[in-house]
Amino acid sequence: MKVVISGGGIGGLTLALSLHAAGIEAEIHEAVSEPRALGVGINLQPHAMRELTELGLGERVLAAGVATRELLYANRYGEEIWREDRGLAAGYRWPQVSIHRGELLMLLVAAVRERMPGALHLGARGVAVESDASGAVLRLAGGGSARGDAVVAADGIHSAIRAQWFPDEGTPRWNGAILWRATSEHPGYLTGRSIVQAGSSAVKFVCYPIREARDGQPALINWIAEKRVDPSLPWAREDWNRAGRIEDFLPLFTEWEWPWLSVPGLIRSTKAVWEFPMVDRDPLPRWTRGRATLLGDAAHPMYPIGSNGASQAILDARILAHHLAVTGEAEAGLAAYEAVRRPATAAIVAANRGAGPDLVLDLAEQRAPKGFGAAGREAVLPLEELRSIAEGYKRMAGFEPSVLNARASYSARLQALA
Ligand SMILES: Cc1cc2nc3c(=O)[nH]c(=O)nc-3n(C[C@H](O)[C@H](O)[C@H](O)COP(=O)(O)OP(=O)(O)OC[C@H]3O[C@@H](n4cnc5c(N)ncnc54)[C@H](O)[C@@H]3O)c2cc1C
């Protein structure tokens, strides 16, 4: 069996590696002519780290990132709302890893080149798919094409194949939030491996290290400043490479001086900021047509809430390879993949629109806008309420420790048909 993949991002590369591990031939057609370490930090949840570990990449990924120790939700005064252990500390068999997206991408590119020489075709833009009873063809810009038993479009939020199938869908949906992403060097704060989410959905600040302080070198802190404006205002198309301006958001955070971190100090010490609107798309009624399907952001772009975009693309890749291997048949494999993944990811898209686990921030802001004061947090936000929000999201997104630790592996080998 051979699978043709359009898009060599995190989802497409992981799919190629997963197919290869399952004994299925794969080739990737990626639009850019040279992969570059673009982006800033992302989080790999334990469910994604399990898959990368089973692909033999766990140690490389961990060495390039930071094993997250805890997640802290705080109000704008830096007061603790909710704190939970993450990764190994929370009882998972796999860590949660915060990592530079570009480094993760380059590590996956290197693994594909090592294990599957010649499988990654660069400067190859997929423009359309045709599917018939015996196979599927990816049409490429410039007139070329690639044929396989199946085609998978892993070509990101502006997927050409999704646009071919749903021509009236238009641009992604913007919720009015603007995100400024950047990294800054810093000596480190709290455990040195803490993710912090602070403020509310109106004005929020998120930070986490993607490189630990070590050998006299400072830590590298990834941070995201977020503010909400009127979503009916015109906004530029989302582009991961658009530079932002500190003056546009620093004034919102000048008073966020906490005993353990100066937010304005962190913002001022960056060298470059990237601006991105918070967008997603409505879940689709179907992902698969004949022998072609969608994967990752092409299938289910979601708000970057709950740190799940890359993790869900990795899960898609492993589950698709699993079903192709166990069914041994392209159409049956694609159908089984969609039956599992479409409802699961639609639920996350919906939960993220409703703030996901970040709901605790808005509750704290509404109930104690001037801080918790002498009465403390428990007076306005009981622990039980906070726990049920955090656990509910994990259950829905498929990363409860007991469930993840106990479930069978997706590793499978294609059986040669007799
Ligand atoms: C340059 C870049 C920087 C990013 N930075 C961040 C970040 O800092 N933080 C964050 O949370 N998320 C970031 N993301 C998004 C994040 O990588 C995805 O949300 C997530 O990893 C899902 O992966 P994906 O493979 O589905 O999509 P993506 O990682 O977006 O990969 C899609 C791939 O398809 C390629 N492509 C697009 N159109 C075509 C076509 N027609 N034919 C062939 N190939 C095509 C793209 O070049 C890209 O390599 C970034 C994405 C990109 C492309």
Q: Walk across the major sheet and give the strand order.
A: 6-5-14-15-16-13-19
Query: What hetero molecules are in the model?
Result: flavin-adenine dinucleotide
Helix content: 25-40%
Indicate the radius of gyration in whole angstroms: 21 Å
User: In angstroms, what separates the terminal alpha carbons?
Assistant: 14 Å
Shape: globular
Low-confidence stretches: none
Mean pLDDT comes to 93
Name the structural class: alpha/beta
The number of distinct helices, counting runs of at least 4 residues, comes to: 12
Describe the sheet with the most strands.
7 strands, mixed
How much of the sequence is in beta strands?
25-35%
Tell how many strands the DSSP assignment holds.
20
